[in-house]
Amino acid sequence: MDARAGTPAQPSDLIDVDQVVGAYYDLSPDPDDPGQQVVFGTSGHRGSSLDHAFNEAHIVAITAAIVEYRRGQGTDGPLFIGRDTHALSRPAWQTALEVLAAADVDVMVDARDSWTPTPAVSQSILLHNQTRFAEGTPGLAAPGAGLADGIVVTPSHNPPRDGGFKYNPPHGGPAGSDATGWIADRANEILRTGVGQVKRVSLQDALAADRTHRHDYLSSYVDDLAGVLDLDAIRASGVRIGADPLGGASVEYWGEIAERYDLDLTVVNPQVDPRWSFMTLDWDGKIRMDCSSPYAMASLVEKMTGPDGGAPFDIATGNDADSDRHGIVTADGLMNPNHFLAVAIEYLFGGARPSWPTGAAIGKTLVSSALIDRVAAGLDRRLVEVPVGFKWFVPGLLSGEVGFGGEESAGASFLRKDGRVWSTDKDGILLALLASEILATTGRSPSEHHAAQVERHGQSWYARVDAAATREQKARLAALSPSDVTSTTLAGQDITATLTEAPGNGAKIGGLKVTTADAWFAARPSGTEDVYKIYAESFVSADHLAEVQDAAKALVGEALA
User: Fold this and answer.
1) Exposure on the CB side of residue 497, measured as CA atoms within 13 A
2) What is the enclosing helix (H) or strand (E) of 548?
3) Per-residue pLDDT tens for 104-147?
4) For residue 327, what pLDDT is reported?
5) Cβ neighbours for 379, distance < 8 A, ≥ 6 positions apart
6) Could you report how far apart the first and last alpha carbons of the chain are, in Å?
7) Contact call for residues 291 and 318 (beta carbons, < 8 A)
């Protein structure tokens, strides 16, 4: 833990924007250096221009690869493109547009020439495609159907020096590994042969091209919110909302939501600064727009207490830079993301959405809290547990078979009130407003609902820690089978399951999960560092959680040996 965690950023913490943007154009990656190649993680390609990991050559190559991929898939409709507020996002957006226009792709750019949250791109893709999907197979259609797809230029909550670039296929959600693997491989081929071969036009010509269209993402998204949330109840109750965009793409959206629906909603900090000079430092002393971190959210938590001890808001919320994550602050402080997911699930499935399909399931990632399992059992609802990555919820959300999909990292989405799909990517604005709906319709804050859940299901202690691992050890961890675990107990309890595949869909975890009656851990290799991540939870005590973590390291060590 950095000694300055949770304190305001100082001038020495801020990036030199000109240096970061200049490096985007001036530095070229070495295509033979793994650290400088195109690599798609669970949320696209990310890196810093200063590290030769996010430069103009990368974006030219990735965009050209996406053009080839979509044509190979028969995706012949428009491509919706948005960007967040990171310093590298606009340059990368411009580069992508120059390549897309030269390739004669119909491109939908923001009508305001402004920032676009990830969920607004997903929602626009789905609205365009809703009448074009093949019957019975949502997300699929024959070539010529005019299906749209999209690109979001964002590194999410990453520090200001980083850039990010992700692709959303016609289903509107994050691309699967088949797509991202092909795109990354092809982009690296283009890097090796030289990006000069890729056809481009000037930005001026790209913006003036007949196939470049202006799309009002903001109105499309904000107008449609009434179909997924009970905004009338929020307005009628007079819930006082403080929304902090954390300098991200939702800044204009929150103001429009307040005006359009006549809500008592204040945009706490409307400032946009690519250096994020107004942020408090995260746990490691870096500027990071992680709305689930008590350190990054320290200023908003402090604002919840007025000068006389009275809170100026009933609910305060935060979003990351592309607005796909949510942070919920009540009078009790910043909620643990797992706790809010459990409250949201119990509220939505407990009667708030009577028109949802009767059999709609609850979706969670396997590293999310087991409190969700207990809530689902109490509701007598089917639980679908999937590997890490929101892409696993996409098919269920599209078909309506999954009513809610959520991750422990404060990302979630759910169905419209009538049971149809809303977004197939994480929507931080939606979940933030749901917190106000819960308070408005029940008279109790989400943190009060969580306290009631603890009384019924027990208190849990949850944490994630890292353990050192070589590249070879990480590869072995990802390839483990249940038979590699010989232990029969974990921290004093009998092991009830040893998993290397997710029980909800049979997909490979890329690691290991071990459960007992009152605890569990999951171990997954990091894609960027020489560590593996251990997620663990205990319903016994904080000391028992520490035992579980120690036992997890020993158990994984034995399996790797």
Assistant:
1) 15
2) helix 542-560
3) 999 999 999 999 999 999 999 999 998 876 555 565 555 567 99
4) 98
5) 345, 346, 349, 350, 362
6) 31
7) yes
d(CA 546, CA 375): 24
Rounded-to-integer distance, Cα 43 and Cα 340, Å:
22
% pLDDT > 70, the chain:
96
Q: Look at residue 538 and give its three-state secondary structure.
A: strand
**Sorting pLDDT into bands at 50, 70 and 90, what band is 362?**
very high
Instruction: Decide if 526 is catalytic.
Output: no
**CA–CA separation, 421 and 304 (whole Å):** 34
**Of these residues, 156, 409, 423, 445, which one is catalytic?**
156
Prediction pTM value = 0.95
**CA nearest 24: which of 82, 88, 83, 86?**
88
The 8-class DSSP code of residue 250 comes to T
Angle among Cα 406, 292, 20 to the nearest 5 degrees reads: 110
List, for residues 409-429, the tens digit of each pLDDT value: 999 999 999 999 999 999 999
Residue whose pair of structure tokens reads 């483990």 in the numeric block:
480
The encoded tokens of residue 354 equal 């009577």
- Containing 269, the helix (H) or strand (E) segment is none
pLDDT at 43: 74
Strands 265-267 and 315-319: what pairing? Answer: unpaired
